[in-house]
Hints:
Elements: E1 12-13, H1 17-24, H2 29-55, E2 73-77, E3 87-91, H3 100-120, E4 132-136, E5 145-147, E6 152-154, H4 169-183, H5 191-213, E7 223-224, E8 239-240, E9 249-250, E10 254-255, H6 271-274, H7 280-293, H8 300-310, H9 320-335, H10 339-350
Parallel strand pairs: 2-4, 4-6
Antiparallel strand pairs: 1-5, 2-3, 5-6, 7-8, 9-10
Helix pairs in contact: 1-2, 3-4, 4-5, 5-7, 7-8, 7-10, 8-9, 9-10
Amino acid sequence: MTANPGFEPVFCTIIPPHVLDTLAQSDDATLAGPARRTLERDSIERTRRRLTTVIGAPPVSLPKEAAADKPHRTIYDAKHKTELPGRKVRGEGERPGKDATVNRAYAGLGATFELYLKTYRRNSIDGSGLPLNATVHYGEKYGNAFWNGEQMVFGDGDGEIFLDFTIPVDVIGHELTHGVTQYTANLTYFGQPGALNESMSDVFGSLIKQYTLGQTAADADWLIGAGLLAPRVTGKALRSMKAPGTAYDDDVLGKDPQPADMDHYVRTGRDNGGVHINSGIPNRAFFLVADALGGNAWERAGQIWYAVLTGGRLAQDGSFADFAKLTVAAAREKYGDGDELKAVIDAWSQVKVDTN
């Protein structure tokens, strides 16, 4: 199967369905109500995404005044309704207002644009200067953030389990990277290719946070969504790339189910075949490469991963092993038989994915 035969954008959320399912079953109405509404909303948006894929979305053109090496951001306010995009509240180059959520969304879009442009020479998520649009204050206590194939959407959270979804910049980078994947490898959103899709978003979401904070691989916490969980939750983030399965262990949310290697791969029909769960395996592989190489993870480790994502050789239905072999090839092509190649081979060996 050839890579990226045609764009098939999917509806991608930061909070896995299994987490919202757990909350929806809570005896506490303050937790169950928002979770149920979020699940219902996600179902509607997922169906809308499928319809748009079938009938086609209207073309998006770059405004004439937008420079090729600058982002073109527009932030909208849904005012707790669900009609998209909502009312425009901030455009490119406009000064910050009083709404911190709007300002964080604007800054996060900019941080994502900057990493891709300056590190990977990619002009916006499609490589051709695509405008970056985002809607904030979506729905009533909506407990998610998503990329719908055309724009970003952020909920405010319920205040009990989830806080404002614009707080972690890696969540913004994660969702926008689904757009990058959409325009490149276009990985099928099911099973192992779906988990790779999620992992690519975690990898570059983490790199965007590290780049923004000026952190080396050793400095970084390697957490996805740190700052998103409310104080009552026993946990530090949604996921840990360094130690999958340790991000939270809560009496309401349960325990982080991510495996750290193929011996513990989770076979399930939920969550599109466990795309948010089994992504822990390639996530850890990337961390191990970055940790072994040291320095800035967006450089050598990030360049290898980016080369595979955008190189045209990764099939839409690529498995973990397919991806791993391509990272070995990319490391050798870029850096020869040095530390980079050894780090990649060793990392996949530790998570028990074959590269031969």
